[in-house]
Amino acid sequence: MCGIVGYIGQRPAADILLHGLESLSYRGYDSAGIAVREENGTVAVRKSSGKLERLKQLLKVQPVSGCEGIGHTRWATHGEPSDVNAHPHTDESGRIAVVHNGIIENYDLLRSRLEAAGAVLKGQTDTEVIACLLGRMYGGSMLDTLLELQKLLQGRYAIAVMCGQEPGRLFCVKSGSPLVAAHREGESFLASDIPALLFHSRDVLILKDRETAVLTNEGVQVYDENGRLCPRETFHVAWSQESAEKNGYAHYMLKEIHEQPIALEKTFERGNDLLRPEWLPVDRETARNLKKVTIAACGTAYHAGVLAKYALETLARLPVEVETAGEYRYRQPVAQKNELFIAVSQSGETADTLAALEEARKNGVRSIAICNTVGSSIARAAGEANTLYTCAGPEIAVASTKAYLTQAELFVMISAALGMLRGTLPVQRALEIRNALNELPKKARQTLLLQEQIRQLCERFSHCEHVFFTGRGMDYALAMEGALKLKEVSYLFSEAYAAGELKHGPIALLQSGRLVVAGITQPHVMEKMLANLQEIRARKAQVLAICPEKMADRVKPHTDEMLVIPDTDDCLAPLLAAVPMQLFAYFMARIRGCDVDQPRNLAKSVTVE
Question: Which residues are catalytic?
Answer without folding.
Answer: 2, 604
